[in-house]
Hints:
It contains 11 helices and 8 strands. The protein is of the alpha/beta class.
Amino acid sequence: xxxxxxxxxxxxxxxxxxxxxxxxxxxxxxxxxxxxxxxxxxxxxxxxxxxxxxxxxxxxxxxxxxxxxxxxxxxxxxxxxxxxxxxxxxxxxxxxxxxxxxxxxxxxxxxxxxxxxxxxxxxxxxxxxxxxxxxxxxxxxxxxxxxxxxxxxxxxxxxxxxxxxxxxxxxxxxxxxxxxxxxxxxxxxxxxxxxxxxxxxxxxxxxxxxxxxxxxxxxxxxxxxxxxxxxxxxxxxxxxxxxxxxxxxxxxxxx
Length: 255
């Protein structure tokens, strides 16, 4: 089952960098593989440079930006905590999109979104200031949030252009054969986001089996503008090759 609209696919190359970092010889080549994904039709490349450089390193950000710049239709998306160096990366390369996540420095992966309902006044001001600064760099700003409808107008009030719905709970439910029970929360969140004037991205543990049903379920609520997929896509590429894997995910996105 596929979506009735076309959703853009941004390939997250963090896991390629994780493999690269186990040696000191630059293999696999991040820039070459980013170009291969774009040649196969990907709409963009996502990186998440964490402070400990466990995968994407600071020195990777500009070379990958140069690769994406060779593809006029493609977008560069840089994810990260705005209080842990994200703004500095965005000021240097001015990506099309900055995705703000509330990761702690020690977090193994993004495991929750911003709790905008309970955000304190000082934190709210700091987050709004970060969004304003990123707009000054020419970035579209997306906030990584859980599928909670009440979050959506708050994200808009802070100045965000989009939200990225955290999809790990849906993916876990799909693995357990319970996707239908998880989807209504995402549909409600999507409707609230559109009502607030926000675009909608999605990501985390989306894969070939669960992606199409997710996008189809959200289509009546205005659909999903973009998905960012890394872990499952790179795992599939070990079996299918990167170019063929990108093509299969694009088909699931309605291309």
